[in-house]
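On clarity, I found the account of how folds are encoded harder to follow than it need be. Since the whole study asks how a given chain folds, the encoding of that fold should be made plain. For illustration, here is how one protein appears when written out as sequence plus C-alpha cells:

:::
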Amino acid sequence: MNEKKYPLATTTWDEREFDSMQEVILSGCFTMGDRVKQAELRFADIVGSRYSVMVNSGSSANLLMVASLFFLSDKPLCRGDVVIVPAVSWSTTYAPLQQLGLKVRFVDIDPKTMNIDLVQLESAVCENTRLIFSVNLLGNPVNYLALNEIASRHSVLVLEDNCESLGARLDGQWAGTFGIAGSFSSFFSHHISTMEGGFVVTDNEELYHVMLSVREHGWTRCLPEQNQVSGAKSWDWFEESFRFVLPGFNLRPLELSGALAIEQIKKIPNLIQGRRDNGRRFQEIAMGFKSLSIQEETGESSWFGFALVCRDVEVLPRSRLRKTLDRLGFEYRPIVAGNFTRNPVIKWFDLADHEVGTFPNADDIHDHGLFIGNHHYSVNETLDALSRVEELAID
C-alpha cells in the first residue's frame, strides 16, 4: 500500500520513549513490574480515578471489566443476564459478552452524536437487564448526565468503552469515569501509544482487587495483604505463590509498555489540546458542507478522528467521496465497524431478542460514512484539502 499524504495515525513518540525502552532493556526486567505500577498510579491521577489497572490491550481492558463483574460479592452480573450495547462499535466491545455467556441487546445510535440513542436505550431495558455497556465513539462522550439517570432508575450498572476517547470530558469530568469502570486503549493509532496496551479505571476498591487477580491467572500473589478477594493473605510468601481464587486470564502488559506509558501520560494534556484545536477548525469547515454531515460534539470531544457521512447520496455518494479522497492522498476507514450486527459473527451471539432488529441510523453510517485521521499537531494542510473535498467530488 502506498504511503498516504494524509494518514490516519502518526507517532507521538520522541527520544524520551526510546530512552525509556532502552532503560528497560538494560535492566533486564521485562515482565510486569515497577514501571507498570508507576504508570497505573499516574494514569489514575490524570484521569481522576482512585484506581487503574494496566493490561496488554484495550480489548483486554474490556474483557477484564466485564469478567470481573461476575466475581463481586453482590453478584451484579451472571450468565444469561442482558447487556445493552450500541449497534456501532468495535468488535471487542461485544466479544467479551458472548464469551462470558451474556445476552446482548443492540440499540440504534443517535444520528447526530453517533453514540447510543438514549430514548431507545431506556425502552430497551427489561427485567433481566443488568448492564449498559456504553461506547464513546471517535472521541465523543455519551451524555452520561442523562444515561446515568436512566441506569439509576432501573438499577442497572454502567461500563464505559472509552478506548477511542481518552481526554474527552463532560461537565468537567473525564469520559471513562462515569460508570463503575471504564476502559482505555494505548494502541498505536490512539491518543497515547504504548504500541499495544490499555487501562481500566474504577473508584470501586473491591472491583479493583478483583481485576488485579483476574488480570493475573486469578491468583492472590498480586493482591494487597488485606484485600476484598481473599481477605488477609498468609504471612508465608510460599503459600501465596500459586494460590488461585478466581478464574483468571493472563492480560499483563510488559515493563516496556509501562515505561512507554509513563512518558506518554506526561504528554496527555498537550496531545489532547492539539486534537481539540484541530477539531474546532474541522467544525468550522464542515459548516460549509451541503452534502456531508459530521459528528455532533457532546461535551468536549477529544476528536479521535473526523467522521464524514454522505447525506445527499444522489448528489454525493460515498463511492465518489472515496475516489476524491484517494486522489487527494487521504487515508480513511469505515466509521469503526459500522452497524456491527451486519457482520457474519453475529450468528454466534446469544441475543436478548429472538432476532437482530433494524437500526436505520447505524445502517446510514455503515453505508454512507467514513472517517479520516486527526493528530496531536496542527493539521491545517489536511483541513485545507478537506475543505475542497465536497466541491471536487461533486464536480
